[in-house]
Each structure stands twice: as C-alpha cells, then as structure tokens.
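We modelled each protein-ligand pair independently. The example shown here corresponds to the zinc ion entry; the chain sequence is given first, followed by the ligand as SMILES.
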Amino acid sequence: MPIYEYKCRECGELSEFRISAQSDTKKLTCQKCGSQKLERKISVPSISSGRSVPSGQTCCGNPGGCSEPGSCCGH
Ligand SMILES: [Zn+2]
C-alpha cells in the first residue's frame, strides 16, 4: 500500500498516511496539531521501513523488493 506525505497548512508538519482506494482522505488529520488542512505532497511512494532495497532484488516476487534477497522468504 503506497504511503503519501501530507503537509499541514497550520503548522507545517509532514505526516505520512497509507492511502488505499477505500481511504477517505477527508478524514486525514495532522499528526502534530490535528488540523485537517493538509495538502498532499507529490512524491514517489516509498517503502515504510525506510530501508531502501534496490528494485529487482527479490527472491519471491515481492514488488517492493525483499529485505534480504535470497533468504527472506525461506528459500
Ligand atoms: Zn499541523
């Protein structure tokens, strides 16, 4: 599920939300001040763990990449 960054217009805090097709983006609130005045930042969806995995290095077909290619799926 992609993660999108929203910037709060009230305090400038960046908040990350997992947005699915069913998510109601109108209910998103700033994680710092609770404001609903958020504007979406255009960015490439990133992997939530923060660990970057080079694309293509998968051992099980995981589209996001495997954390430990060759061993993460029990192969
Ligand atoms: Zn805020």
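The beta strands are 3-8, 14-18, 38-40.
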